[in-house]
Design a protein that fits this description.
The complex is a heterotetramer, with two copies of chain A and two copies of chain B. Chain A is of the alpha/beta class. Chain A is built from 14 helices and 17 strands. Classes of the chains: A alpha/beta, B alpha/beta. The structure holds pyridoxal-5'-phosphate (2 copies). One pyridoxal-5'-phosphate binds next to α5 of chain C.
């Protein structure tokens, strides 16, 4: 099955018009030695076969709606209003390219402008770009920007409670830059601020803190900011945008950049992608941030009109001098987030964030009551995930619950040495009281099975 | 009728979504988290109803050009048709609703899809291994260059330089710079290919990599590619392939066979995943054996052996079956460069690419490139009398004209681009590559019919005619769009990128 | 740019779909069925590729008005917003991909949904039992009248006549005729209600039924409804309720309580199922106990008892759970009228209606009608100085104006309707009800905001103004649509309803 | 959760502008006694709750993709190209009303005109309306038209092999018309033509034959037509439109009306609806057919333009004199069928029909080889379904196979007295050789289990 309208007859006629004897004449420049290979792809499938065979492949996965999942850790199961899929599946939106021709792309442009404005309102920041790839790469990108905007500095200080995958991206991204990465210890679930104060020096380009952090805990961002500012380093806040329905936004505690993963805003978990990296900054840094930016302007008749702006920052103009190489971004995901924010609105965002807060605290209480289980960081405030210490290796507990169709959370041993008994549990608004009770009971059963040696 | 901003549609108390009530005793929030963690005022988001949002976005969508509504000959972007089956498969709950940290026992279908895609991409490019992690072409470039750095570093010296041709896409030098390399530009010759002598002159043992795309952004095949590869390898440099132009080569020639050591692909180009108004795409990176140890983590590993049979005989047309081995993620890769993003890749995009490849199969994928090349040469043949055609040889999947002659008559490439919109065609890529003055870069792709090409050719000819008669009028084009030309200077000078309500 | 006919896009050999090959030895077809059963030439269907079809339909869709893009105040049609969750639920494979003859053991969810919908419709209308079988309002009417005929026949005399008011929708007399009844029309009085005296005069013991809608198509409440019901019942006639106007009454009053014996509902009106450019809808019919034995087969029956709990306490907001009994289809109904269509009903449409009702709940459904009535009266208040308002009392969910005054100035209801399109509003229903000269029947529904109504009112006022200034110009309206006024006379005279290619 | 934008504040302001004290004043005309009731609907649900609870309800059904089904009998499992859903889910199409205002509805109108033309090409008939409700009601409707177009005649002759539900609709529809319905016996799977010749008289308005008929057999339509014509009765052919990809179309054997169920053309089985009734006729009968019809015309500037036409036939103008009461129809389903026919095209329709023919014959052969099973009507040609006589009650056999996730077909005992051992098996292009083998094996097992008493 292909999607090629031209038939052999069309092609022969066209080759005649081109004035060649055949296709091979057109590609005579390709050395003959290069043309002697076998691709050995499977033979073609018709659409009914694709539906059947790839449907069967999908059926080898167990989707979250067939399980009860308490997994989070950077990818969150949330309510997605049906109108989002309805709207983003419109061909005019999802089969368009980057809006280079403003006059033929006002739909995409206005929606991206609205996305930028909505993200600014949510984060309290002044400027947002039109998207980056995802949360992890947004962290990497923020390092590029910070280093670029502080061209004389080469140290980056990062919280040990930043998502381990994000930390890994940060290191990978900066491998060629001669950057010194200093990792701060975590105490009681949050970044050690004394260590922070000690680590930030005149050579520090940026300090990266995540809140809620990898362990679900809300960091003392205000105080951290106060320690960072006097040293002139950029304060990069990595935040969960959904949490900002109820938590203090980075614009209020002095962040210079706020970045993060936009997936909670109406984007399916989809096995890790495509997601949405968002990047915001203060007004001062507008010429330093990367990625597409849409501006509001007028047309020759003075009517409101939108176009890409500040392109002089970008790779296609600045080339090797650009602060970033980003070209294609995640527009359609930004559109999902924008529609999500429009639909949830002022009240809905608060309610949804509060529901997450309440459900996770309800679950934390319920689990704490299960003999053998305890909150790892009882003093740290948290949003929608928290760490539980188990009476047995967390992986063992999870394996047991999996048999009942429950994904109890993420065993932390894999990421943090010494935390083999710790489990990161996420409880969003998708979970009911009954789900939480089921989890607590199942944990109880799994643990009592474990007590006997 | 202009569509208001969503903020102007807001009215206090309206809402589009309600949420379930919390069905347990609700303590004050401040008993759960300290007051100073909490937001004092609600974010000033719009208050609208569902009908407002649906009308708003629907109406805005209608004023966009898109592949689903218009021919989109945007050079270097491969705006081919996006088959609808691909979206259907990607949005099956088995793919769209699985969590990246679910146990492998519950995601074997996804792992098998990744494995199969890696294998088919190897088959298409002639590379030995692929990572699906990068999120777009530029991201793939950065990945590739970091791999190259790791490779050289492991051999004792990361080296300092990367050579790119003057016709390269901006992401190439930019990616090289971010990977810590100094960029050396090599000029093209008058056939649009790398100037071999000048290349020799800049090649030394501090060159880590040579970045090329083939066909080049001039739309022509690098005939010296084997020689270039040999020279680079002899100097100890690796050859990097920018896969943006792979739509010319599938089944025709493979970058791996040409000597490329690292390639990235743009699945949102060659493999038909929709571009979404700017993204998401995906930029898988393929490497030769020697670079495999450096690939980002995690890698797929086979836990339990069993042939992964993706073969389906054409002859007896027996049912296609995937005998998948048991797969898992492997993080234990000591030489890895690390991670380029969270998790594994843009699953939803990759599933679309896989669906597309399986639909076409061996024959079909070959035909894709053949027809893409014929379509481009057809346009070239039909327009080269009116538009300057800087390179004499046959083009590959795209054709770069120069509007030099029209410029002399008073109309620029931009004017031509804008005027095309009035004819119901998206504009070509303009002013890229930078090596061609007033460049008009036209890529028809294989999914456009001869009739569509003929209508486009007629429009281009009529525009050339209009310019001869009165170049002035084109300065005001387009005439039939929802807005006339947008003031980009004002946009940059009086920056308004975040809506703030003007007080009454 | 006009969109070609799909036939003009056809080119020999093109195709959009391929099918799996037959993977067993393929005999000649004539060994399977005799030659004379087989078609000699392929049907002359278009040969196009997928991109052609997608562009064709996408572009055509863009030149339509619709609720998703425009305010659609089409009277008697209740063009409310169609919530997107409804479509999502209806297209779940569990509903969209089950066969009507699957064993009940594999379709308990569908049976429970039907049961729940029947129960909620009973609650809303005050009827005792519902059949979900009819496919639309008119189909419901026919069902209802055949039920009435069966009822009277069982009592010895099917009777001969059905009374309908002069303001009735055309389907009412037409349905009565098809059920074998003679139609007797009763005029309205100057308040737009049934003239009680004239009604009394035509009511006799050959009257099988009186068909009313309340509010009537004049948009006003039949204040004498209880008296009419008593009179009809006394004469042995049954009262039939045309549910097209139920959007005025939900939670406010129930046809069952007014004395109606049979009602049909248009779920594509009151219950928000999309109208699809003409359908599909659904027209469930509710009856009082005495008529239940006659309902079409099959009926739902409870095989195993267990409370069907659709209750969810607001107070403690405990989770909604459906404790469904085991259900099955019952065909063994000796007095049934039979069947009105294949299978059980328009499942996909009915699921949407159920979703809508469950979303609103008791309070929400009540609010629907309240707001619909306020919105209509708001329009009435703001326009009655310029447009003749034939009935003095408050209207219900819609308002019927007469463009008599404008007609005198030279513009018709049609002109006004066409001109409204230019303002981005769909036209009201015109020339219906036939009792009002130059009728403009405006139904805003509850899903439109005050701002939208204000813009509509402003447009209507501006049009009235334009007519005062120069009625002539309106004859050429609309001015901004893809076509100007369509020649309906030519369409009927030179009938072209099946495309035949004109030879070159 | 409601979809009402106006808030209480909006409504109060509006009530003030209307000049009433409150809502109750607006509805003062409603007698107080009528307002004293309790509706007792369940309380409102938010969208997340709807997704969850109605999702759970859907999950109580077993969809065909989780089973292997050989059910047909008027509702067929066929391949549906993905582009159909993509296109008909566009809001501009599915949220529009009947195109009364032609200038604002050219999209719907042109597509319906194309639908009419496509159906004519497929059936070989001259005229098609823009849709009826479904196959069953289309049969009822055809009786109304026939009786109306032959106002002096009152007999309708109908084949006993017409789908039993359609026959029931026919009787129900004509209950008030004083129509005499004569049912023809079936011999060897097809209508007894001698009986037909005997039954058709000068009082016969129409003869209704279905081909392929309820038993899957292809009727001798040509000969039937030759018997009907001389009596002046209308020949109504009830046909499966998909079969016309390979079978002779009604336009070639002299049908006056061809009607049927359009569901096989891209419409999901969806538990019986919404489906698509189609209605076609010869040119001679154009003023006699019912339902919407779209005509091609011009606008005032002479450009091609479409509008509803021949409205004088319809209920809103003719009222009690109309031949039909149809108002809303099945436009969106007609659109699905039209897109299906565009996508399948000339070649695809032939191939798909042939695949059905081949698969069903492959299955018939395979089942015939299973000991104890035999084709009921071995001499009658068939399209994609056929009747098998089982060695035990067909219901028993089906119940056994259901345990293996196979729906073996429709046991005919329920519809046809004396056919308790007969099973109607449908095999469409969705079935593979492997599926057919699985069915044959399972039947073999079920039967051998049965042989022991
Ligand atoms: C030649 C070339 N290289 C690289 C890229 C960058 O790819 P992406 O936009 O996917 O990051 C592009 C995209 O336009 C391109 O045309
Ligand atoms: C008052 C009235 N009755 C009956 C009907 C017929 O309903 P349907 O179109 O669903 O057959 C309508 C539809 O327009 C109507 O407005």
């Amino acid at each position: 099955m292909d999607y090629i309208p031209n038939t052999d007859a069309d092609l022969s006629a066209m080759l005649r018009e081109i004035g060649v004897a055949g296709f091979d004449e057109l590609v005579a420049a390709v050395p003959a030695s290069l043309r002697k290979f076998k691709m050995e792809l499977p033979s073609a499938m018709s659409e009914p076969e694709l539906q059947r065979e790839l449907g069967a492949m999908a059926a080898r996965n167990q989707p979250l709606d067939a399980l009860t999942s308490f997994l989070g850790a950077g990818a969150y199961e949330h309510f997605i209003p049906s109108a989002i899929d309805h709207l983003v599946s419109r061909g005019e939106l999802y089969t368009a390219y980057t809006p280079y021709q403003a006059e033929a792309s006002q739909g995409t442009l206005q929606l991206l402008y609205e996305y930028q404005s909505l993200i600014c309102r949510l984060t309290g920041m002044d400027i947002s770009n039109a998207s980056l790839y995802d949360g992890g790469s947004a962290v990497g990108e923020s390092a590029y920007l910070a280093l670029n905007a502080h061209s004389k500095r080469s140290r980056i200080v990062v919280s040990g409670a930043l998502h381990p995958e994000y930390r890994q991206v940060l290191k990978t991204y900066t491998a060629g830059m001669g950057t010194e990465i200093v990792e701060l210890p975590v105490r009681d679930g949050v970044t050690d601020l004394d260590a922070l104060a000690a680590a930030v020096n005149e050579n520090t380009a940026a300090v990266l803190l995540q809140s809620p952090n990898f362990f679900g805990c809300i960091e003392p961002m205000q105080r951290a900011g106060e320690l960072i500012k006097p040293k002139g380093a950029w304060f990069v806040a990595v935040v969960n945008p959904l949490s900002l329905g109820t938590l203090r936004p980075p614009g209020e505690y002095g962040a210079d950049f706020a970045v993060g993963e936009g997936q909670p805003l109406g984007i399916p978990v989809s096995y890790g992608g495509p997601y949405l990296g968002f990047l915001t900054s203060t007004r001062q840094l507008v010429h330093k941030i990367s990625g597409r930016i849409v501006g509001r302007s007028v047309d020759t008749e003075g009517r409101e009109a939108f176009c890409l702006t500040l392109q002089a920052r970008e790779q296609h103009i600045r080339r090797e001098k650009a602060a970033s190489n980003i070209c294609s971004n995640q527009s359609l995901m930004a559109l999902r987030a924008a529609i999500f924010l429009m639909l949830l609105g002022k009240r809905g965002m608060r309610e949804m964030a509060e529901l997450n807060l309440r459900r996770s605290h309800q679950a934390a209480e319920a689990i704490s009551r299960v003999p053998g289980f305890a909150l790892k960081f009882p003093r740290a405030p948290f949003f929608n995930e928290f760490v539980v210490t188990c009476p047995a290796p967390a992986q063992t507990i999870c394996d047991r619950l999996e048999r009942d169709g429950i994904l109890a959370g993420l065993p932390l041993g894999r990421f943090c040495a010494g935390m083999e008994r710790d489990l990161l549990v996420c409880v969003t608004e998708t979970k009911s009281t009954a789900d939480i009770e089921r989890l607590a009971e199942a944990l109880g059963r799994a643990a009592s099975g474990e007590v006997q040696p | 009728m202009r569509e208001s901003l969503i903020f102007d549609l807001s009215s206090p108390g309206r809402r589009a979504c309600s949420l379930p009530a919390f069905d347990a005793p609700a303590k004050p929030l401040t008993e759960l988290v300290p007051q100073d963690c909490l937001r004092q005022h609600d974010a000033d988001l719009p208050e609208v109803s569902e009908i407002d949002v649906v009308r708003h976005v629907t109406r805005l969508s209608q004023i966009n050009f898109s592949v689903d509504t218009h021919f989109y000959p945007l050079g270097s972007c491969t705006m081919k048709y996006n088959p609808k089956i691909n979206d259907r498969i990607a949005s099956l709950p088995g793919f769209a609703n699985i969590h990246p940290y679910q146990p492998a026992s519950t995601t074997q279908g996804a792992l098998a899809a990744f494995e199969l895609l890696e294998q088919t991409l190897c088959a298409i490019t002639g590379m030995d291994a692929f990572t699906l992690q990068p999120a777009a072409g530029a991201h793939g470039e950065l990945t590739g260059l970091l791999l190259i750095r790791a490779y050289h570093t492991a051999r004792g010296n990361p080296r300092r330089k990367v050579i790119v041709p003057d016709s390269a896409h901006g992401t190439n030098p930019s990616s090289a710079h971010l990977a810590g390399y100094h960029v050396v530009t090599v000029p093209s010759n008058n056939r649009g290919e790398v100037d071999l002598e000048k290349f020799r002159a800049v090649l030394d043992d501090e060159v880590a990599a040579v970045m090329l795309t083939n066909p080049s952004t001039h739309g022509v095949f690098e005939t010296n590619i084997l020689e270039i590869a040999a020279m680079a390898h002899k100097a100890g440099a690796l050859l990097y392939y920018d896969g943006a132009n792979l739509n010319a080569l599938v089944g025709l020639a493979r970058p791996g066979d040409m000597g490329f050591d690292v390639v990235h692909l743009n699945v949102h180009k060659t493999f038909s995943t929709p571009h979404g108004g700017g993204g998401p795409g995906a930029g898988p990176v393929g490497v030769k054996k020697a670079l495999e140890p450096f690939l980002p983590v995690p890698r797929l590993k086979i836990v339990e052996r069993e042939a992964l049979s993706i073969e389906r005989k054409n002859a007896d047309a027996s049912r296609f079956t995937l005998h998948a081995p048991r797969l898992a993620w492997d993080y234990d890769r000591p030489q890895t460069i690390g991670k380029m993003r969270s998790f594994y890749g843009s699953t939803g995009v990759l599933i679309r690419a896989l669906t597309y490849i399986l639909a076409h199969g061996d024959e079909g994928m070959r035909r894709v490139s053949e027809v893409a090349i014929i379509n481009a040469n057809y346009i070239k043949a039909k327009l080269k009398d009116l538009y300057d055609d800087p390179f004499p040889q046959a083009c590959m999947h795209e054709i770069v004209f120069s509007a030099r002659l029209q410029k002399k008559q008073g109309s620029s490439a931009r004017d031509i681009a804008k005027r095309l919109l009035d004819f119901g065609f998206h504009a070509p890529t303009i002013y890229f590559p930078m090596t061609v003055p007033e460049a008009l870069m036209i890529e028809p792709t294989e999914t456009e019919s001869r009739e569509t090409l003929d209508r486009f050719i007629a429009a281009m000819r009529q525009i050339a005619e209009e310019i001869t008669r009165n170049a002035e009028t084109l300065h005001n084009a387009p005439f039939t769009m929802p807005v006339t030309r947008v003031d980009e200077v004002k946009a940059a000078r009086e920056l308004d990128v975040n809506f703030v309500k003007r007080d009454a």
